[in-house]
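Q: I'm writing a short explainer about Glutaredoxin for a general audience and would like to include a description of its predicted shape. Could you first generate the structure from this sequence?
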Amino acid sequence: MDAMFGRTKKKAGPRTVTLIGKPGCHLCDDARAVVEAVCAETGALWEEKDISQDEELYRAYWEQIPVVLVDGEQHTFWRVDAGRLRRELGA
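A: Of course. Here's the predicted structure. Afterward I'll give you a sentence or two in plain language.
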């Protein structure tokens, strides 16, 4: 456990970034570019999910898209800060 932040350290291996958005969303396009670049730099895996095709994601995040998850936990929404995402991924 990371005593400074009270979190359990992540296990070794590639991290996974999930971008939740929808077609035609300019903020989602901006977020995709940041996620794609940071993941290419850090070796993290990334995936994209369409909120309009998943009722559970829609209920959870419809007011926040784009939403970025790191290893299944919400990292940010609306705007993605490349530096903050790099730090979260350990770069």
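A: For your explainer, you could say: Confidence is low (pLDDT under 50) at residues 1-9.
Q: Perfect, that's easy to follow.
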